[in-house]
Specification:
Chains A, B: It comes from Amycolatopsis pretoriensis. The structure is a homodimer of 192-residue chains. Chain A is mainly alpha-helical and 192 residues long. Chain A folds into 2 domains: 1-55, Arc Repressor Mutant, subunit A; 58-188, Tetracycline Repressor, domain 2 (Orthogonal Bundle), CATH 1.10.357.10. In chain A, 73% of the residues lie in helices and 0% in strands. Chain A has 10 helices and no strands. The first copy, chain A, has helices spanning 8-23, 30-36, 41-47, 53-56, 59-72, 79-91, 99-110, 113-136, 141-164, 169-188. The first copy, chain A, is elongated.
Chain lengths: 192, 192
């Protein structure tokens, strides 16, 4: 479990998100964010390399949650079973009380194509990292890529639904993964 | 089937690829490309909006090949069966005689992160278009996204293998899709 420690970085992040959501991302400067919590721009840049990082910091923790799930998977788990473990672990990163924050963040990202591209790139990086971890478990190259990419797709769809619904991300992700497996099974049925 | 008509655009494309591969993409200008086939820079820009487009023009034809495959799928085909049709249709876009061209193009893209990003974006757009076409067939939202994203993943993996191997893209894509379905089926087996 990752702790969500309230500190300077979190205060900056919270107020930045409010400013991005109300004034607009482009219209908000790092100096204004710092000022709003009584800090200097210099302090802002001690915590974030740039304004965009306010929205993306902590990504490595999410990736780590996936990797923790992979490590915890039984040794004889199939690639998709490992991915299921990874998704369960990643879901702990988004407890329901984080939904309001995530919704605001998403509304900011949805209004800015460059941020959308960055967010999409996050999923790509995630898939690459998961594939590497699967290969390290002895999964062959193509199977590792297929399972990892599928995991990232399931996570992306589940996360979007989690923002709209009130159920837990773990439940939604399990349901979306099950739907993928069922769809695949339907295509394996004997030809009619 | 898409015809590969030799004309001014194709001559420009061919020589551009040679220059990108030998001198480097960044080091080659539109004027130099035009000059190499005895044309003016102005003529170049009548065929391509910029230098990058030389590498990406025709993408809509590939997307159309996917859509043609979807349209040709039997009405009662399951989402993944429709995706299989789309992949077969898309494979006709890359006959084996196109492999040398595609290999050179890929070597240029592999050496430039911005081009890699653009290439990746192509797959994203493809997935979105395929998902829309599946929804239009009455496939529900999540299933359409899952099948479309899986199709794009399979296409990406198959294409990379096609560049390295000597087998047809249709065969490789069918094999990668079958591997995905088999992996998924393994995860559906009863718990041990």
């Amino acid at each position: 479990m990752v702790r969500w420690e309230p500190g300077t970085a979190e205060r900056l992040q919270k107020v930045a998100l409010e400013l991005f959501a109300t004034r607009g991302y482009e219209q908000t400067t790092a100096a204004e964010i710092a000022q709003a919590v009584g800090l200097t721009e210099r302090t802002f840049f001690r915590h974030f390399s740039d304004k965009r990082e306010v929205l993306f910091q902590g990504q490595e923790l999410l990736v780590q949650a996936f990797l923790d799930g992979i490590e915890a998977a039984p040794e004889d788990a199939s690639p998709f079973e490992v991915v299921a473990c990874a998704l369960r672990s990643a879901a702990t990163f988004f407890p329901d009380e984080r939904r309001p924050h995530s919704r605001t963040r998403q509304s900011v990202i949805d209004r800015n194509p460059a941020l959308q591209e960055r967010e999409h790139h996050k999923l790509t990086t995630l898939a690459t990292t998961v594939a590497t971890a699967l290969r390290a478990r002895g999964v062959d190259d193509v199977a590792a890529t297929l399972a990892a990419e599928s995991g990232a797709t399931v996570f992306g769809i589940a996360f979007t639904r989690w923002l709209r619904e009130e159920r837990s991300l773990a439940d939604i992700a399990a349901e979306v993964l099950a739907e993928l497996l069922t769809l695949a099974a339907r295509a394996l049925r004997p030809a009619r």
